[in-house]
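Lab notebook, bench 4. We co-purified these components, and the gel suggests they stay together. Before we commit to crystallization screens, I want a quick structural picture of the whole thing.
Request: model the full complex, all chains together.
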Amino acid sequence: MLRLHEVRFRWAGRSGFSVSVPDLQVMPGETVLLLGESGSGKSTLLSLICGTVLADSGRVEVYGQDIAALSGGAHDRFRAERIGMIFQQFNLLPFGSVLDNILLPIRFAPERRARAGDARAEAVELCHALGLPAGITSAKAATLSVGQQQRVAVARALIGRPPIVIADEPTSALDAGTQTAFLDLLFAQVRGHGTTLLMVSHDPRLADRFDRVLHMQDIAQIARQAA
Amino acid sequence: MILRLAIGSLGARALTVGMTVLAIALSVVLFLGVEKVRTGAKASFADTISGTDLIVGARSGSVQLLLYSVFRIGNATNNITWQSYEAIAAQPQVDWIVPISLGDSHRQFRVMGTSDAFFDRYKYRGGRSLAMADGARMADLFDAVIGADVAATLGYRLGDPIVVAHGIASFTEHKDQPFRISGILEKTGTPVDRTVIVSMEAIEAIHVDWRNGAQVPGQATPVETIRQMDLTPKAVTAALVGVSSPLQTFALQRAINEFPQEPLLAVLPGVALQELWAIVGVAETALLAVSAMVVVTALIGMMATIFSSLNERRREMAILRAMGARPRTIVGLLVLEAALTAAVGAMLGLGLLYGVLSLTQPIVDSAFGLWLPIEPPSLREVLVLVGVVAAGAIVSLVPALRAYRLSLADGMMVRT
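Here is the predicted assembly.
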């Protein structure tokens, strides 16, 4: 499903921060937790997988597709089609309605739109499954609580069933109780759809929910050259 | 949906966007307003005289002759003697001739001595004739017909007495010979509205006791005596001439310009008007350029606003990028927002323009004699509005390209 091999990447101009990943594989349907402190290259790794930055050398394969082989526009299309993305916080466009936000990715992904069928109905269904109050779809995103916003972000990541969901510390802005409820809902959805989940976090307490736990320091080498 | 997002995003920044819209609207009002005044002035100048083939006056400049004889702007340097006037009137090519005698005033309005034929021969706005709103033409020596603005401004009615002052801005009045208002003209939108019309004989009559521009001390001829006097004018300021055949216009013009007894000048009103535009054109262009610069300034203001909003919107762009939006979608979104802002500004500006026009139309008309028509936007104005929107979209490309580079560099990992 996901494979990185001998990947090297160096940020241009950012004090020579570079990451190299000798080998990383994630199987279809697997849930993987990637643990690492801040500055351990987690975000860079996610950017490489999503194709918003390209590796200087090595191979990044997502769903059997070599990312580097795609042209600029095709990266974006590929990401839209294959990857559901959940951020740490501020996931939503604050001025859009909940429905606008959920339907945003399929705007850029015709295949996902086709798979979603009646996209509005699926959005409403996902909201219901994620325990969001009925009728919330027409509310403005900015009026929602942080917990609700994160659940809307999950609905957005899942709409049209992309094969991979990538979550970048989605629980760090939530308190402990909300965190547990959120993860329960996320896992129920991911397992239900057989989606591959790659979550990045610094919190080892989440480990027991996942099929596999990886530590950043084991899979990647970070180097900082003095500018 | 992109349109909905753009509108939503603009709505979220309602205050700054509102200010930008207002700045664009005001600049559009200024630009279209200048354009309106310009075309209105041109049209009302061009409408002021029609049907007259030649204007004859003492030798000066053609523009000057046109201005003082028709528009009552400025003064004649010299008069035409009555003998010359009669000699021109006797030319075979002359169909009709109307004398004009200027130099006196009533309050802020000029007094014009002329013959009865003026009311038949003077035409404006493509051949329309003067019409009486009330009363009749001068019948008595001391009758006066006043223009619509004179009546409206000074509140005059038929039969009211008026006293004519000597000169244009003078305190010396022809008190001994008061006039009576015999008629009030309908509004024409020409300088006739601001003119007091009396007969040529009346101009002669009030100057009986005057020599060389000053009242003869101690001399006060009684009105009854004046009525008995021969009041044939000694001079006229200018004359409007109609020729019997248009083909003879140039021959007559040359004959008058080469008049042996006196240096005279005959001009074709249309040609003189063209010369006037050539002079005014520079100022006109400058005015238009200044108002265009104001529009450009407003658009650059919008560009600055977009620039300063980019940083706070990096998160928004990162979300869009993560969802699979291409960098060029982000550029499109910013340009669409700018075009929407400019379009709303342009429409608001057009609305404001009509508002301002409907409020100031009567004021401008009475103060400057300038009639600004309220009509649907002309093709030219529509093009200006479209141009503003297009220019808005174009200037927004600068910050949009910066956003493009930012979103390429940030990817989707901006943390705010």
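Chain A has a mean pLDDT of 85. Worth comparing against the SEC data before the next meeting. Residues 28-43+71-212 of chain A form a domain with the Rossmann fold fold (CATH 3.40.50.300).
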